[in-house]
Amino acid sequence: MPVMVEAEEVHVAVASNFLNPLKKIAQQYKQDTGNALIVISASTGKLYAQARHGAPFDILLAADAKRPALLEQDGIGVMGTRFTYAVGALVLWSLDSEAVQGAESLAQMNKGRLAIANPKTAPYGKAAQETLMQLGVWQKLKPALVRGENIAQTLQFVATGNAQMGLIAKSQLEDPNFKLKGSHWDIPIHMHDPVTQQAILLKPGRGNLAAQQFMEYLKSPSAKNIMKQYGYRDIKKP
Predict the structure, then answer these.
(1) Which of 11, 72, 120, 211 lies 20 to 30 Å (CA to CA) from residue 164?
(2) Hey, which bits of 63-169 come out as E strands?
(3) What percent of the chain has a predicted confidence (pLDDT) above 70?
(4) Is 154 helix (H, G, I), strand (E, B) or coil?
């Protein structure tokens, strides 16, 4: 008789920008291995704080490299397991098909609200702030800013008309679940520090073989293909 192996669960804390790609990867992972992901999503800053306070996450998929490195230094992350799984991109987006015409749309903005993620907790918010500073419009537009707790809430501000434009993740624009219309501008990569998104195995997942397996699965062609579909940039140096 064949030996029945009980499927395992992996608790994955994921930054908001990567939630929908992860759901798709999770489906493929379960199909390939039988193991299931339990997904918890929020801003990277919030997930980092929860991990530090003992949240039972097996894996953190952050939207930056800073927090995984800090968790590794603090002994909460397992040394040697941290790697870059994706590099994100930023876009300026509006529901109005004529509102976004490149950088001049921000320079000439004199009414309405501009949505960004909170730069203190969300790496995409930090990238948005850096972009606005690079363009010389940060001080001018500060009164018009509405800050989302995470990049998902930032998208909602624009999608519901509470903001005229927003700096969102390209993965949201490319997401087949959203099918966003309107106008957009791809922010040039030199406008902000790279949105280097890193994964790390956390202490609760050290004894979970399925968690270790999923960390490797993230590097697979199957997972990489899904990330590419969502607009994530190629990783030059894993």
Answers:
(1) 120
(2) 83-88, 90-94, 114-117, 145-148, 165-169
(3) 95
(4) helix
Residue found under tokens 């800090």: 70
- Give me the percent of the chain exceeding a pLDDT of 90: 90
**40 pairs with which residues across the strands?**
13
33-63 tens-digit pLDDT: 999 999 999 999 999 999 999 999 999 999 9
Interior CA angle at 84 toward 22 and 203, to 5°?
A: 75
Q: What b/e sequence results for 27-58 when a residue is b if at least 16 CB atoms lie within 10 Å of its CB, and e otherwise?
A: eebeeeeebebebbbbbbbbbbebbeeebebb
Contact call for residues 122 and 45 (beta carbons, < 8 A)? yes
Of 18, 143, 154, 20, the C-alpha closest to 93 is 154
Kindly list the structural domains of the chain, giving each domain's residue range(s) and its CATH number in brackets, ordered by start: 9-87+194-229 (3.40.190.10), 89-191 (3.40.190.10)
- Average pLDDT along the chain: 93
